[in-house]
Amino acid sequence: MSKEWGPLSGLIGEWESDKGGLDTAFSHSKDEVLASPYLEKCTMKPFGPVDNGKQSLFGLDYKSAMWRGDEENPFHTEVGYWLWDAATGEVMKGFVVPRGITVLAGGTADVNATSFTLKAALDDPQYRIGENKYLAKNASSLSYVINITTGADTWSYDEVTMLRMNEFDEPFSHTDHNTLRRVG
Ligand code: HEM
Hints:
By secondary structure, the protein is mainly β. It has one domain (about 5-180): Lipocalin, CATH 2.40.128.
């Protein structure tokens, strides 16, 4: 797959993990911080170009879902787009978490990069997090950072979402990491 997708080319395809994912979050039902192993399925479909005037973007249309194990429903899902601007090296991941959160995370990378970092924050002028009124009051997403590494038929992420939660005096670090292998 080709150059047009730059550092995103290593993400194109269908992906799965075994139960090697690990989520750390505050569980309201258990009233404690839980580390939950998870398995994941993800599809990334290439598209482009999308032109904004002189800007030309190539992207991936993605969906991902994570399960704690034998539960029928995923405990986390995302839909969105990864985007690459070859002229500036800008990489973006725009997605929705169905808790009522939208994220446009961004950064820069070399065309051949096999690892890169994207960031968003609640108050960033460019790469911003949007959230519903309940979350703004009770569990607000202050910032989001994701490190991505691509390899031969595998890719990994390591992400940290800082939450201001009513249950804690200090910002709480909600973390997730996983490695996926190509299945299509
Ligand atoms: C692999 C990725 C992720 C997984 C598996 C995951 C999973 C979870 C879990 C298990 C909870 C605890 C729910 C509960 O039991 O009360 C939670 C809470 C939360 N997550 Fe995530 N999460 C992920 C990514 C994200 C991202 C990227 C954001 C925002 C940018 C986010 C925002 C939140 C918020 C705001 C809460 C708190 C909800 C509340 O306290 O009412 N999560 N997440």
